[in-house]
């Protein structure tokens, strides 16, 4: 390190010096120049070994490889760290004091390489190393390491940047080198600016806490003394950023950017046993949903989804929610977006636990009521968070011990009616309710069991009438779960109620009752998530040995995608996983016989052309394949990498020339085929997921190279080829059609397309509303047809490898019904995206919740098709799904008619598409009718029959 004040002058003079000068006489192969001095502003620098700035530490010594001869040498009057034949193993510079670099953006240094260059890795004394992506060259190299490269490492490998005691260097090639190091310093603040100055921060402070100090254990709050520190232990994927910002003097907030999920570590750990509530305030730019968990490395418990409003939202979570975690040893908190997509920006404040009750508004914590999924135009809502309410409710009187109030389930965004010690009570509506054109009135009901068994009768009273009409449906409520009832409107009409001007709702019964989701609707009822109750799986039967069915048949399966995402390589069971045996058993119980199994190239082969990882990833993959074979399920292996992977620290895409080529992909697939060819249940090798953005002709030649390589070791297993442009089905003739020319010596190719049904075809369904996403009632079929028709034209086997819909609107479920029926009719195999235990936050997930006890709404449609998917009639008539026991229905295949006979006279018949479009409506006036189906496009249709007494019957049929 150079002394004195003439840095820049000496730098210019040094350039002119020759290697023969006496100044180098005592140094072996020394630098002939000094490095360019750093130019960072001193105010933003923490200097370790650099005379341009004031050092904040000293060099205590050296350790590791070459430490015996390592020293500080003077070169041209400039002190430099000198390692003579070091770096073949880790060579460490030991610091005189421990440094905190957590508020810095980058670590910089200059390194001089004697003779041949090499690849350098740097180490901070704990965690994993960071590889310098550009190999060092002979002479001076200026290095700048973004400290985010450390913060984004998997859990367990993230160094504590607040405790830097040494810095290590190593030659990635593993042999000794001689180097000189100078100008070691860190600069800047995290993110390139001062995190305490944030232009996006809230403009108003969070509510001031009101709990007594003596009742509080504070985690992050300026109102109390905090008992721990917060450390970002794992930023998740994509990597979240955490920083403390101070938008107001003395008011610190905890900011998260790009939060999908993150693990925050408590140091020291927390003992929260005996505390009653966890409080925190969260600021969001717009409505969002998150979940929060507490626990340690062996056990953790999470909240349900918490709704954030724009601005500040306050939460008081009963600690009983986290009872499955060890509250005496809380090490981490997991914070994550509940829909699976990163939230741009969140701010937290006043995170603390306390004894006693919440202050102010009554807040309860029970399971959320199942979200209604009926189409808004079929609903008149009185009390829901889903739809626009047409009236408000007010207390109209109670009898006996009955106590009524409006409470919040965690936040003011989720209101619930609570009736304690129910005997009788009345609710007034602020506007009369006209339900005369509706068919049923829905109520969701919950009994907590604390007030005894729950029973409930529901009545209605019309404006100006003295008579209340109670439904004949008397509910005995299950405890600690949501129940529901649909009261037929025609029953109330027949009893004498004027359903056009209801202004009172009455309850009588017993117990502590919570009520939510009061609305009237017309048409067939579709249950919300979990309303069918707890599902039961015969696990012994689902896990029993079974034979593989006919491989040539078309199957309806699922993607078990735990291995498709996360940091690469990542840590197994932290950043990614693979399907569990229980996953396989559950879907086998639902009739699924085909699994698409995504995995990542870099995890099974760490270096291109290198060996497969038989110790972990290939071992785990083969275990899943073997279990699937045992229980009679096929597996399609899917390399889920979009024709991209990391090579030498740089993300590369496959090209004719470059670091990643078709030969590399052919090499890994030949090795995978060697490992998997002995299994009888490999349905196909899906050689690459969704190729896109490649140079012209590259994907075709790459696919051919992979086919050729696999066929050198396996002539039996089908090879699955996806089209370009993300395997889009809607553009298949242009982006996949040319693949017909591929040559497979085994003549056993299967072509794969993907299709989603939101506006931008991404599968993200970001608009959040069916009406915004779907503009054409036939757009789903139109997107599928180019691929399906191409398969038929060229007599090829095909599979729709990815498709999926949200489960929060019955119209999506109806659309899903039409999609599967269309694929079934055309004998195209399909695998639904997505399933697997790590997909629970995805909008389109079909994976069950709560340890396989709560069914997804999509499964109600899916399960209808799995067991006989490849058993479709080739006729042109209709297959009927009669859901009304008092109707006789049959079809005339030759005449394209459907005949209906009812017990009572039918008033009218209407024909709808499953997306809700009315195609025709006819008046009947008799107990028999004929429906002409000639001319209808293939798909699923709904026929709605209005009986003369006002009741409605619905049935579906499939038109081929």
UniProtKB/TrEMBL annotation:
GO molecular function annotation: hydrolase activity, hydrolyzing O-glycosyl compounds
CDD domains, per database record: AmyAc_family (cd00551)
Keywords for this protein: Glycosidase, Hydrolase, Signal
Signal sequence segment: 1-25
GO biological process, one term: glucan catabolic process
Matching Pfam families: Cellulase (PF00150)
Domain Glycoside hydrolase family: 579-836
InterPro entries: Galactose-bd-like_sf, GH, Glyco_hydro_5, Secre_tail
UniProt xrefs under NCBIfam families: Por_Secre_tail
Protein's name according to its UniProt entry: Glycoside hydrolase family 5 domain-containing protein
Source organism of the structure: Bacteroides nordii CL02T12C05
